[in-house]
Amino acid sequence: xxxxxxxxxxxxxPPASGFxxxxxxxxxxIAAYSAVLNALMLIAPVIGGKLAEDLGLGPAxxxxxxxxxxxxxxxxxxxxxxxxxxxxxxxxTLLCTVLVIGGNxxxxxxxxxxxxxxxxxxxxxxxxxxxxxxxxRSGRAANPSRAFGVFVVSQLAMGALILAVFPVVFADTGAxxxxxxxxxxxxxxxxxxxxxxxEFLRRLAATSAAPGSASPRRLAPFVLGLGALxxxxxALSGVWTFMAAVADAAGTAPDAVSFSLSAATVAGILSALFxxxxxxxxxxxxxxxxxxxxxxxxxxxLAGGPGLLRFALAAVLFKFVWTLILPYLLSTLxxxxxxxxxxxxxxxxxxxxxxxxxxxxxxLIETSGGFxxxxxxxxxxxxxxxxxxxxxxxxxxxxGTPEVGAASGRSGTLEGREA
Length: 419
What we know:
Layout: H1 22-37, H2 39-42, H3 44-55, H4 59-75, H5 77-83, H6 89-109, H7 113-140, H8 144-169, H9 175-193, H10 200-207, H11 216-241, H12 243-249, H13 254-278, H14 284-301, H15 308-336, H16 342-368, H17 372-392
Helix pairs in contact: 1-7, 1-8, 1-9, 3-4, 4-7, 4-16, 5-16, 6-7, 6-9, 7-8, 7-15, 7-16, 8-13, 8-15, 11-15, 11-16, 11-17, 13-15, 14-15, 14-17, 16-17
């Protein structure tokens, strides 16, 4: 819904979208924070070597730091079950942003491994808590698919910027300079936090049914949808982690592999940008079905030691379709709703999938001595995820909103949409 077409709201009432400034404020808040917060994970290729050099860390210690960060980022979901619908979200966001800023500043000065590990744990818990707010607010936006598209494309754009610029700018600096830069980026996000209506979910909680009142009939689509998201992330992270290794094993030159992956990144940004501009649509189910089919085809193209052209096609198609699927998959979950905690739980599913995918794929590659087993399991995960999404996807009316009595079990109005 564009600001021009949005229904008028009395001056004394909060905006219908739950944001000061309406949808434009929502998208600015989501774009700024999702780009900067996920930079904590995107800096791994840039900062890993610097940490090893500055602190004398071995591969296991370096890997542990990033594992702790990813785990804390995901586990922030658990305490959020208690505060998400009770706390002022603007206050939470501001306090956690201060923690992120402080954590990154302190990280730049720390010269002890154990202390750095603790600081990164606290910093990532704060960042994960803000991400819970981001996901919950995206699901409550007037146009959730557009909001989730912005959530995805801003991360991809920041990732491309980091991989292109950071290695050059910080070539002659230590890890501290990178952490301080992240702190500065987080400072720039602070003004957008004021665009958030902090009382929105708390007011909703006061007028809605208690979380425990959800019936098993309404809980089943919620569980199946989260299962689809978990399988989706296990498959994509498992394949993407070893994408270059597949090409290397087939004898493709490293420069050609790098160029193919760069082209894939551009394709991913374009498809996420399309989802951002397209927003909610009555054709969402068709987009999901086509995207899952394309993702399965791309995995199949990687089988059998692909040559350069087939590998490049597989990489570009894989990145293009998964970034197209994700905004519409998340908006489908937002339509399901269960006690206001659907979008909170997606953060746990995403983090778990990102952690499990590479681990499962790596074990399959080691035990089989090749990539066939990994690709078969990933392909099966994609297919099963797609089937689950088709099962739980609510019927949608001409406007693209869930119809009354659909699988979501609620009206498609904004007031009926769970966070």
